[in-house]
Amino acid sequence: MKKIIKSIIKIIIGICYFAFFYWLCLFSSSSFYGDFNLYTTIRSDDGEYYANIYKHLPTSPISIVQILGGNKYFTVLYNKKGEELWRVSYFDYIGEESLVDMMAFPDETNNVFICPTNHGLDGHDFSKTIRNHKLQ
Predict the structure, then answer these.
(1) pTM of the complete model beyond 0.85
(2) CA distances, 118 to each of 53, 97, 112 (Å)
(3) End-to-end CA, the chain
(4) Which CB contacts under 8 angstroms, 24+ apart, belong to 125-128?
(5) What are the CA-CA distances from residue 130 to residues 42, 52, 88 (Å)?
(6) Residues 102/114, Cβ–Cβ less than 8 Å
(7) What are the pLDDT digits (tens) for 64-91?
(8) What does the alpha-carbon distance between residue 77 and residue 65 come to, in Å, rounded to a whole number?
(9) Residue-by-residue DSSP string for 12-54
């Protein structure tokens, strides 16, 4: 009987570890965003793009530590129609002092969006997307 109880306890502990891991990795603090956590909007000079800066939500121990450390924000890029084009990784955080520094939007000479994160600069090259859109 004791072996069965020990086995059941081990299974329950294993399931708890598994659930905790998924909670940390899949329920990111930047999974949910909208007007309720919008901090500011930065527009490109030509008006073709804008980046919304959202506040992270305190949904996991990792996000709580990052938020308390001052890294409260993340970036999502949109085109002028309001369609989401790109967003930073779920695990990237931005401090308030870095929000506008080094942000670069795609333009006629360069099709790359660049924004700061706690891991350095991040971004996406839209060369194929923009070129295909202009051909249509």
Answers:
(1) no
(2) 14, 11, 19
(3) 71
(4) 126/85, 126/86
(5) 20, 20, 19
(6) yes
(7) 888 888 888 988 999 989 999 988 887 7
(8) 25
(9) HHHHHHHHHHHHHHHS-TTSS-SGGGEEEEEE-TTSSEEEEEE
